[in-house]
Amino acid sequence: MTDRRLRTDEYPLRRILLVWLVVSILLIATAAQNIFRGQFPDPDDVLRLVQVRDLLAGQEWFDLKQHRIDPTGSVPMHWSRLVDLPLVLIIGGLSPLLGQTMAEQVGVILVPLLAMLATMLFVGRMAWRLFDVETAGLACLVVGFLPLLVFQFQPLRIDHHGWQICAVVAAMWAIAGRDTWRGGALAGFAMSAGVTISLELIPVAAIFAAVLGLRWLRDRNSRFGLVGFLQMLALGLAGLFLLTRGVGDLALYCDAITLPHIGFFLIVALGATTLALAPPLPWFAIVVGLGVSGAAGLAFFGAGSPGCLRTPFGELDPLVYDYWYVNVLEGRPLWDQSALVYPQLIQIAAGFATGLHLCLQARDWKRGWWTDYLLVFGGTILLGLLVWRSMAFASVLATVPLGYLLQRGLHRLRSTESAGAKVGIVAVLLLVLLPSAPVVAGQKLASPVGNSAIKGPLATSSCDLFSSAAKLSALEAGTIFAPLDIGPALIQRSHHAVVATGHHRAEDAMRDVIAGYMAAPDETLDIIRKHDARYVVICTDILEPNLYADRGGEGNFSSLLVKGRAPNWLEPVVLDTPGTFKVWRVVDTR
């Protein structure tokens, strides 16, 4: 096989850019209505924009608090400034030219697409190195057919998940390099950025470390791959911590990188470096040595942050856990998901099966490469089964083998003369690329039309949340007692604050909101007084307030509001909004 580094005329950059442009246009067209209405895919995207606005308005870089959530206490967000950075650069850079509103519009459309472009560049580079330019372009095209990737890269999806996906595929590309230390170091830096963004990537970093460790056991000359990975992971985490957190807040949070985390990775890196520089050792001694390094790092972490040996959500208030956490389905395992997601597993299975076929057919370095690829791929599949959102990492690793499968299918389609064979090839390709199409079509045909009594997500609500929330600015600024899911839109579109949103560091305020909506009105008023809230706002046709109404006691606060029977200490506020968007002013009559 000719070294592709010597065939620069074949580099697929133009094809990757063309595919990205086509997929981007399709995503923008598909999301046009949401873009026009300013309706973000998820409340986290809304709050991300609020954070960026506050930063551009003068909030300090190291001040991660959201001062309009539970303003009596102010909530320190667990999000990283790394994700804010591209939004700040684009919105801040374009605001003098276009005005802030238009600059924000450009930013929230462009940033997810840029994350997709970065991801495609890594995917295309890997596919080109393994196959050819055509397969590289098709592998990038496959990105537009994988639902979990499309969701994370769609316009307005400005939260951190797209950049996490990019970090995973960047690390996969990096360990394909021929310089073992450099490849490991680049992968370690990619993982340090991903872990800084969210601790959700720590298991993925462990998978990469395990694969690089197996390389060491297979070939001692590959030992510096793991060393470079661990060194740059530790140093990258330390540097990014200083860049994004500084030294003003050294609190031991369990949901973001802290000094004990960094200490753990430094100890493990030091242990691996020592073993790599030692004289040749038998494989079991290497395994024991790495295990001892890991145990020492874990002991340091446990001593420095003992409360974080459990999961960040393990100690949630029972009310918050039952009524918020278990309803965040993307963070739950596969078996808690709707059956509608199951067809997506066809794509993952097809990608893994194709990768296995390529591994069995490969020789020399390619056999080792595909073995490593499948180990990482398989690890992310297992992780995705436990946390469905993480199946996006498996999805991005499915792109390269699926690109090859698509290329071979198209080649067979062009070369065969049998009509039956052509039909069969097209059917298989459609099944792999669009496995959910029959399910979605059947759901649309079976769903009732015009049934406004159905209580569902914000996307299907008639309360026109984002436009309605903007009209709240006509009222004097104050704190709003509102369900968790609509809180981000209220603070993004108006000058008001809210008691809580669905972000677990505001656990006490979240509990007060949930308990308040499920309590008797007099008890709710006590909670409202506690947070000095001046208004109550709900959308009556979304799931959250109706869940509280159904599960609370008879005559609970939420059920009264949904039925239009507000207590006498609430005064209706008339705004030009749909009837399902209800606003009251608190008038304490006691």
Which tags fit this structure?
transmembrane helix, 5-stranded mixed sheet, AcrB/AcrD/AcrF family protein, membrane, transmembrane, 590 residues, globular, 4 domains, mainly alpha, two-stranded antiparallel ribbon
Q: Overview of this structure, please?
A:
The chain has 590 residues and is mainly alpha-helical. Helix content is 62%, strand content 4%. It folds into 4 domains: 9-39 and 78-159, no CATH class; 162-311; 313-442, no CATH class; 458-586, Rossmann fold, CATH 3.40.50. Strands 4-3-5-7-6 form a 5-stranded mixed sheet, with helices on both faces. The longest helix is centred in the N-terminal third of the chain and has 31 residues, at 100-130. Mean pLDDT is 91; it is low at 447-455.
